[in-house]
Design brief:
heterodimer; A: four-stranded antiparallel beta sheet; globular
C-alpha cells in the first residue's frame, strides 16, 4: 500500500540554524500539507500546497517557514532560523483531491531545537 | 471557529472490555469527520472517516464510529479491546480552506491504556 514517507525521522539543531524537513507524498496525490505537534499538545495545521502554490496557511506559518516542491516527488518544509519553540513533531500529509478528501500522514520528523 | 473536543485525556480499560472514546465537534456546515490513531513513536494512521450517508461507519482494526448530528458527536467504539490498541486516538474535523483545500482541525487526543 502506498504511503507517505518523511526524512529524517529525528533532527537536532541549534537555535538560529536552518532546517529542511523532507517528505515524499503518495505518488498520485496532488495536495500536500504540513502539520506539527508540540509535545503534549494537539496536532496543528501549518500549510496546504497545490499546483506549486500555497493554498492556505495558518498564523503559525510565518516568514520563517517556507514550502517547496523541488521536483516531482519531494515536498519540503524549511525553517530559516529555528527557535526553541519550533521543537515539535512535524507531519507531512497528502491527498489525491481537494476538498472532501482523506489526508494520509507520514510518520513524522521529530525536531529538537537546542 | 471550528473545533474538536475530546473530553477524556486518558482512559484505561481491561483487555477484552468494550471501549468508547468521545468526540464533539463544532462546525457550521456538514462535517467531514475522522479518527486517527498514533502509536508511540509512530505517525497518524487513519482508522475511519465519515463523509455522508450511513451514520455508523466501520473502520480498520474492528473500530466503528457513529455520527450524531443532533449531539455534534462522533464517538469511536470497539466491542472488545486488544492490548495492541494501546495508543493515542485523535478525532478531527475537515474544514474547507480559502483555496479549496481541506485542513484538519484535531482534538487534543485521548490516550488509551489497556490492562492485561
Amino acid at each position: 500500500e502506498p504511503e507517505v514517507t518523511q526524512t529524517p525521522s529525528h533532527q537536532v539543531t541549534q537555535m538560529g540554524q536552518e532546517v529542511i524537513l523532507r517528505c515524499v507524498p503518495i505518488s498520485n496525490h496532488l495536495y500536500f500539507y504540513w502539520y506539527r505537534q508540540i509535545l503534549g499538545q494537539k496536532v496543528e495545521f501549518l500549510v496546504s500546497f497545490y499546483n506549486n502554490e500555497i493554498s492556505e496557511k495558518s498564523e503559525i506559518f510565518d516568514d520563517q517557514f517556507s514550502v517547496e516542491r523541488p521536483d516531482g516527488s519531494n515536498f519540503t518544509l524549511k525553517i530559516r532560523s529555528t527557535k526553541l519553540e519550533d521543537s515539535a513533531m512535524y507531519f507531512c500529509a497528502s491527498s489525491e483531491d481537494e476538498g472532501r478528501a482523506t489526508q494520509y500522514f507520514g510518520p513524522g520528523t521529530r525536531l529538537l531545537v537546542l | 471557529a471550528q473545533s474538536v473536543t475530546q473530553p477524556d485525556i486518558h482512559i484505561t480499560v481491561s483487555e477484552g472490555a468494550s471501549l468508547e472514546l468521545r468526540c464533539n465537534y463544532s462546525y457550521g456546515a456538514t462535517p467531514y469527520l475522522f479518527w486517527y490513531v498514533q502509536s508511540p513513536g509512530q505517525g497518524l494512521q487513519l482508522l475511519l472517516k465519515y463523509f455522508s450517508g450511513d451514520t455508523l461507519v466501520q473502520g480498520i482494526k474492528g473500530f466503528e464510529a457513529e455520527f450524531k448530528r443532533s449531539q455534534s458527536s462522533f464517538n469511536l467504539r470497539k466491542p472488545s479491546v486488544h492490548w495492541s490498541d494501546a495508543a493515542e486516538y485523535f478525532c478531527a474535523v475537515g474544514t474547507l480552506g480559502q483555496g479549496g483545500s481541506e485542513k484538519l482541525v484535531f482534538g487534543k487526543g485521548t490516550k488509551l491504556t489497556v490492562n492485561p
